[in-house]
Design brief:
It is a single chain. The protein is of the alpha+beta class. The chain is built from 1 helix and 3 strands. The chain has a 3-stranded antiparallel beta sheet with strand order 1-3-2, with helices on one face. Strand 2 and strand 3 (53-60) form a beta hairpin. The relative contact order is 0.32.
């Protein structure tokens, strides 16, 4: 199984703000993975703390 997470971070934000936002994304979506079978084809959009779509995660074949 290959798990792919793509997140676009605001290039205009400071490095500290980008790190903080990425940490939020990882905590939230990492905690949510238990709701998925994690089989090839599974996936979901990823949202930031302001509920803007900033990426996606997906399960691909190996």
């Amino acid at each position: 199984m290959k798990f792919v997470l793509e997140v676009a971070l605001d290039e205009g934000a400071s490095a500290q703000d980008r790190a903080r936002e990425l940490g939020r994304v990882l905590r939230y979506w990492g905690g949510n993975l238990g709701h998925y079978a994690l089989e090839p084809g599974d996936g979901s959009p990823v949202y930031d703390s302001e509920y803007r779509e900033v990426g996606q995660w997906r399960v691909a074949g190996s």
